[in-house]
Amino acid sequence: MEPVKLFERGLGLVTPWKIMDIEFKEDEVHIQVDFDRGARFDGLAVHDTVKRSWRHLNFFRYPCFVHARVPRVKGQDGKVRTIQVPWARHGSGFTLEFEAIAVALMCQMPVRAAARELGEHDTRLWRILQGYVQQAREATDIGKPSRIGVDETSARRGHDYITVFVDLDARRVLFACEGRSGSTVGKFKKFLRSKGVKPGSVREFACDMSPAFLSGIRRHFPKARITLDKFHLVALVSRAVDQTRRTESRVCKSLKRTRWLWLKNPSKLSAAQKIRLDTALQADPFTQTAKCYSLKLEFQELFGVPKEMARQEFYRWIAKALESNVGAMQEVAVTLFNAAQNILNWFETRISTGLLEGLNSVLQAVKRRARGYRKTENLIAMSYLIHGKLSKPNPL
Questions:
Q1: 49: which strand partners?
Q2: How many helices, marked H, and strands, marked E, lie in the chain?
Q3: Alpha helices in 62-209 (DSSP H)
Q4: Roughly what angle, to the nearest 10 degrees, separates helices 307-322 and 288-302?
Q5: Coil, strand or helix: which one is 259?
């Protein structure tokens, strides 16, 4: 096959496009593309042309560039527009082949590392990624999601966060945006409408006890049922145990350096740790920390009872916690009592944000490997790239 024909096929050129020249200079390959004289585009005559250049895949180890006169046509409305070339996205400085390879690399390594491999600045690769993500999300059919998990994850040190909405059944990120206020739920609602999905089709939400999320869901999805995540609830009870241990350790020396003994599940303790815990419990069985620990174990067991007994056992635990005379646990009991229905909904829905916690941990690992991102929108783009189940870019 002749070199010109080979490059034409590689670029996906069809009539009236053709390669006019292939030049090797200064260790770079430059391909000159043009169109036939008198050619028409979209049935319209050429009004004028503008010169454009695109970075293409390396030819062996040599950087390769495509140059062309891009036609502009005047429509019936009198407006002049630039036609779409077959080898690149509109407005991009790279060919489709280059972008496909760049996205594939960015799926496997930090963007900065991919930039070094491709000999480009990482800012330009971020533009490729943003463009691909936007295009892929616009083309993705999200169906009719009915069960949604919502959680936050940090964008960088400090108080910068993004909120992520996940289809719990499809197990993919549907929407992510900056912030963690109730307005993020409104943005998610707007996104659903943009995809032709009626917000009323969402019947269930799983989230933590964030007042912002709860108020946002009630405002924008008033008919949806809220299920509070059981793992966050157990964590709330565990914090009461630790708070009590910290207070008592000031006078009870045996409680010092025992934090993880009380916070870990008994099944996760080593043999030596079990002995230490038993010793701490037997030393003074009436300490407040021991009471809290016992209540914590009972609270965890609540999620194993049949749903017919759930309400009765839940309120029995609330009463026992209030009667414990342990300030930290009493405060937790009041908090859980006020959120009783959203907690008891779990026995019907069986949904949680556990999936989001897993997805966010992967996302945070990717962020750490990249040593952070300069912009929040970059983390959002990565959340779609990793967990959005987007279709792979089609080069041509």
A1: 71
A2: 16, 11
A3: 96-108, 111-118, 122-139, 183-194
A4: 170
A5: helix
pTM assigned to the model: 0.83
Q: Is the peptide bond before 306 cis (omega within 30 degrees of 0)?
A: no
Q: What is the pLDDT of residues 215-251, one digit of tens each?
A: 999 999 999 999 999 999 999 999 998 888 888 777 7
Which tens digit of pLDDT belongs to each residue from 58-96?
A: 888 889 999 999 999 998 888 999 999 999 988 889 999
| Residue 15: strand, helix, or coil | coil
Give the C-alpha separation, 364 to 375, whole Å: 15
Point out which residues pair with 21 in neighbouring strands.
32
Degrees, nearest 5: CA angle 242-273-280: 60
Rounded (5°) CA angle 376-382-387: 130
SS3 breakdown of the chain: % helix, strand, coil, rounded to 5?
A: 50, 20, 30
Compute, in degrees rounded to 10, the torsion defined by CA atoms 287, 293, 294, 299: 150
- Provide the token pair at 240: 């009461």
Whether the CA torsion 30, 31, 32, 33 is positive or negative: it is negative
Q: Which of 194, 155, 156, 200 is nearest to 175 (CA)?
A: 194
SS3 of residue 42 by DSSP: coil
What is the chain's alpha carbon radius of gyration, rounded to the nearest angstrom? 29
Closest CA to 339 of 189, 224, 209, 250: 209
The secondary structure of residue 94, as a DSSP letter, is B
SS3 320: helix
Contact 166, 143 (CB under 8 A): no
CB 126 within 8 A of CB 379: no
Strand partners, 206: 149, 227
Q: Which two tokens stand for residue 6?
A: 């080979």
Element holding 385 (H helix, E strand): helix 376-387
CA triple 243-340-246, angle to 5 deg: 5
